Amino acid sequence: MTESESDGGEGSNLTQSWSQDTVMGGKVILRQPIKGYRAGLDAALLAACCDAVSGQRVVEAGCGVGGALLAAATRCPGAKLVGIERDLQAASLGRDNIALNGLQYRVQIIETPLPASVAKLGLEPFDAAISNPPFFDDPASLRTPDASRLGAYMAEEGLGAWIGFLLKSVREGGSITIIHRADRLGDILSLLAPKAGSVRIRPIAPFVDAPAKRVLVRAIKTGKAPMVLLAPLVLHDRGGGHTVQTEAILRGETALGWD
């Protein structure tokens, strides 16, 4: 990993300093704020289970500086991706990151609050939608983080608005993929039904003998297949460090499939 600091990227009007890092084993360059929300493991796992093929179109709701968006684009050559982001500074850094990685011809970021549907943006339905929605929608349940991170933690519109947008973003038969807190799984499933089915759930556990703290949920719009609970992804060994599977995922050497 490399790091440098600046007052902003080329062509941007940022006043917040940033670091320049590499992720996916050096395959993706990522500028992100030194203070504020930074792309981490959740973004990496969301990208790792994006399986769009060449010619398909993917939208990410709340793309930030492009951590998941650019990793997914790198993993899915030939797919076209659009990120939706309301934060000015994050969107500007995200555009810098698109240019740094030479992906301008198939990745873009639209700066706007979360709309009711992609149709309001003049876009056709997508083949797939991905998102890491803010984990909280009740201010009373959150110890307020640094002010610069608040937008990434708090879904002012509520989780229902995020999932509603994802459902309206994809064509019939399109996929919706979400990473979220494990204790919100019931809410997620309720919000996806009855418009989406064929749900597959991947628990994400910190250790093999610990409860899952995250879930990856994949649903198909108008899907009818039975729900499937997949084997968990275990992140860490008790001896320290990531498991072999997790390390390979983070380095971009393998995907996180839905089988």
Could you tell me the CATH topology label.
Rossmann fold
CATH superfamily: Vaccinia Virus protein VP39
What's the architecture in CATH terms? Answer: 3-Layer(aba) Sandwich
Q: Percent helix among the residues?
A: 10-25%
What is the residue-mean pLDDT, rounded to a whole number? Answer: 88
How many strands in all?
A: 11
Largest sheet: 9 strands, mixed
How far apart lie the N and C ends?
Answer: 32 Å
Alpha-carbon Rg, integer: 17 Å
Structural class: alpha/beta
- What is the general shape? globular
CATH class: Alpha Beta
How many structural domains does the protein architecture include?
A: 1
- What order do the SSEs take from the amino end to the carboxyl end, as H and E? EEHEHEHEEHHEHEEEEH
Q: Descriptors for this entry?
A:
259 residues; alpha/beta; Rossmann fold; 9-stranded mixed β-sheet; two-stranded antiparallel ribbon; 7 helices; disordered N terminus
Structure overview:
The chain has helices at 41-48, 67-75, 88-100, 150-153, 159-169, 185-192, 244-250; strands spanning 18-23, 28-33, 57-61, 80-85, 107-111, 126-131, 170-181, 196-205, 214-221, 228-229, 233-234. With 259 residues, the protein is an alpha/beta fold. It has a single domain, classed as Rossmann fold (3-Layer(aba) Sandwich), CATH 3.40.50. The strands form 2 sheets. Strands 3, 4, 5, 6, 7, 8, 9, 10 and 11 form a 9-stranded mixed β-sheet that branches. It has a two-stranded antiparallel ribbon with strand order 1-2. Strand 3, helix 2 and strand 4 form a beta-alpha-beta unit. The two termini are 32 Å apart.
